[in-house]
Amino acid sequence: MELSERKQKILQAVIDEYIGTAEPVGSRAISKKNELGLSSATIRNEMADLEEMGFLIQPHTSAGRVPSDVGYRFYVNSLMRRYQMSVEALEKMQAIMADRVNQLELIIKKASLMASTLTEYTTVVTSPKLTSARIKKIELVSLGFGNVMIVIITSAGIIKNQSVELNLNDVEASQLSEVLNRRISGLTAEELTLDKIKEIGKEIDESFNIAPKVIINMLNFVYEAIDSLDYTEVYVNNAKSILSYPEFSDVGKAREMLAFLDNKDNLVKLLGSAKDGVDIRIGAENEFEELSNSSMITVNYSMNDKTIGRIGVIGPKRMNYAKVIASLDCISNQVDKILYELYNKEGDV
Amino acid sequence: MELSERKQKILQAVIDEYIGTAEPVGSRAISKKNELGLSSATIRNEMADLEEMGFLIQPHTSAGRVPSDVGYRFYVNSLMRRYQMSVEALEKMQAIMADRVNQLELIIKKASLMASTLTEYTTVVTSPKLTSARIKKIELVSLGFGNVMIVIITSAGIIKNQSVELNLNDVEASQLSEVLNRRISGLTAEELTLDKIKEIGKEIDESFNIAPKVIINMLNFVYEAIDSLDYTEVYVNNAKSILSYPEFSDVGKAREMLAFLDNKDNLVKLLGSAKDGVDIRIGAENEFEELSNSSMITVNYSMNDKTIGRIGVIGPKRMNYAKVIASLDCISNQVDKILYELYNKEGDV
DNA sequence: TGTTAGCACTCATCTCTTTCGAGTGCTAAC
DNA sequence: GTTAGCACTCGAAAGAGATGAGTGCTAACA
C-alpha cells in the first residue's frame, strides 16, 4: 500500500512534533505550522486515514495522534531527514578519540561515553570477543613476601594481571618469566591445551622449587586470562538519562528499566542479536518485553572487517532517530579507524 | 536535658517503626505493639513531649510523628540495638574477599559490591591515595607496526598501561626496558623529578635512535602514571536502589540524586570529609544539600595504620543504621586484613 | 499523681462529580 | 477536493464531600 505524498508529509510532521513534545499531536498543531498550507479539517481527514492504515494511534477519542511502531518504522525507512553532525561535535570527537591513550577497552569506553554525550540517551556497548588473541608476553614480578604479580599482555593490547601467593625473589621471578614466555608467548587460548599446560608444569617442576599446586594455580590463571578474552564485556553509560523522559515519569517503570540495564546477560543477548551496520529496533521489535516502549539503535565496529562488538543507544520510541544514527555512524567510523591503525596493520589479531 | 527511660523507649519504638514503614507513626501503633504496656493516650502525651524537645516532627496536625535529625542522632548514639551479622553473610563475605584475585583496586570494588549487596543501599568507595607508591617494574612490549605497550607495575600492585606510537622491535623494546628499569624502578612520584627525567631522556637519546619528542612523551606517561596514583578513584554501586524508596518516588528528586552520585568530585569531597572509624551523617549533617534527606555511614580502611580510603553507604534517613554499621564494620575489617596480608608485611608502601 | 477513656477537632487522602477544553467526525457549502 | 462550522467525546483538572487516622484536651479512675 502506497502513501500519498501528502500523507507522508503529514505523518512526518506528526512524528517530528511528537519527538519534541511527547504529547499526542492534534490536527490543528500540524495545520498551524503551515508547512503544508492545509486546514486542520483536511489534515484531520488524512490523519484518520493514517490511523486506519496503522501508522498512527489515538490514545483515546478526543486526543491527538501518536505514531505506532509501524509509523516509526516508515519514518525511519523513508521520511527521516539526514542529521548533519555539527563541525564542533565532529572535531571534539576526533580530538577525544585520538588521545594517545588507546587501548582497546578504553577506546570502547570512550566511544560509549561519546555516544551518550552526543545523544543524551543511554548507551550500551559490548567490548570485543577476541577469540584469536595471542599472548605477547608474560611477566612475573615479585611483590615481596610471598606474593607475585602475574601480568599477561595480549596481541590486542589487553592486559590481565593479578597477584598470587608465591614466594620468589626477583631473580627467580625473572627466570620463571623466561620459561613461561618461551613456552607460551605467541599462543592463542585454543592452542594452550591441557597437554601443553602439563608439559610446562613439568618443566617448571624440574627447574624450580615450587609446589606443584602453585604451578597449576598459576598456569590456570594464565589459561583463564586468555580464555576470558572470549567473554563479552558490557558497559552501560548514562542510564540515569531515562529519568529525564516523561515516558518514565512512573518510578516503577524507571526502576524496571534500570534493573534491565543492570543485567549484563540481557544486554549481551540484546546487542548480540542486532544486525551489522546501523540497526534500528522500534518498540516491540525488540525481543525484550522491557524495551517494548523504547527504541534501540546499534552499530557494529570491526577489526579486519570482522564485527567484534556493538554500540547501542537506547531511548524512548520518540527518540531523535536521525541524530542518533548520525552520531553512531560517526563513532563507529572513528572506532574502526583507530582500531585499524592500532592493530590491523599487524594482522595477527 | 535527660530523656526518661520511658521516653527513650517510645522514641526507639517510633524510629524502629518508621524505619520499616516510611509512614508517620501514630501513638496507637506504638501502643498496639504492647511492648510498653501503655495506652495510646499516655504515649500520645509522651510523644507530644518528645516533639517539643525536638526529637520528633509532625508533618501535619493529624499525622503521626516522624523522627527529626536530632531524633535519629540520639537513636544512633544511645538507643540502637547492635545488629548481629548472620553467619552465612559472614562466611560468604570471607569467601568472596579471600578469592585469589586480590589486587588493590579489585579488593575495593569487591568490598563496595559487598556493602551494597548486604545493605541494599547505594555504596560509594574511594580507592587508595597512595602518595608513596614505588615503581616496581617498567616493561615495554612491542605490539608491532609502530606501537609499543608501556606497562608499569607499582609496589601497591597497581598497573598502568597504554600503548604509544613508537617503532621498536622486540630486542630494542627489551633494551629500552632495561634502561628504564635501571633508572626508574624503586622511585616514588616525588623522587622522579624533572631533572631525573631529563637525565634519563639523555641516556636514551644517546643509546637509541628515537625522536626526542617520543622519548619525552614516553617519560611523561611514566611520570603521569605514578603521579596519578595520588588521585582518588571513586566507585558507585547500586545507585538504582534509591528508586526503591518512597523518599524518591518523585522522579525529579531521584534524578537529582543520581546526578549527584554521578559527580565524582562531590563524592571525593564527601568521603574525604568523613571521620575515621564508623562515621554517621544524618540528613543536614551532610555538607551537601542533595543529601539533606539522606544519611550516610562511612568507614575507613587502612594500610600501615594509615587511612587510605573509605567505604560509604548512602540511604534514606530511616535506613537500618544498625545493619549498615555492622556490615561496614565487618567489611572494613576484612579489607584491612587482606591489605595487611598483601602489602603490609613488606613495609614499603 | 500518673494513667486512661472518651470525645471533639484537624487535615491529608480518597472518591465522586463537575467543569473545561483539546481534539475529533461529520455535514454542508465553496 | 477543500474548508468552515458545529455537535460530540472524553481525559484531565478542579472542586466537593466523605473517610479515617491521629491529635489534644478533659475528666474520671487507681
Shape designation of chain A: elongated
Helix/strand/pairing class of chain A, anyone? alpha+beta
Could you say what the CATH architecture of the largest domain in chain A is? 2-Layer Sandwich
Distance between the termini of chain A: 48 Å
β content of chain A, as a range?
15-25%
- Please indicate the count of domains of chain A: 3
Q: What can be said about the biggest beta sheet of chain A?
A: 5 strands, antiparallel
Order of helices and strands of chain A: HHHEEHHHEEEEHHHEHHEEEH
Q: What is the fold named in CATH at topology level of the largest domain in chain A?
A: Beta-Lactamase
Helix content of chain A: 40-55%
**CATH first level of the largest domain in chain A:** Alpha Beta
**How many helical stretches of chain A?**
12
Strand count of chain A: 10
User: Which quaternary structure do these chains form?
Assistant: homodimer
Report mean pLDDT of chain A, rounded to a whole number. 84
Fourth-tier CATH superfamily name of the largest domain in chain A:
GAF domain
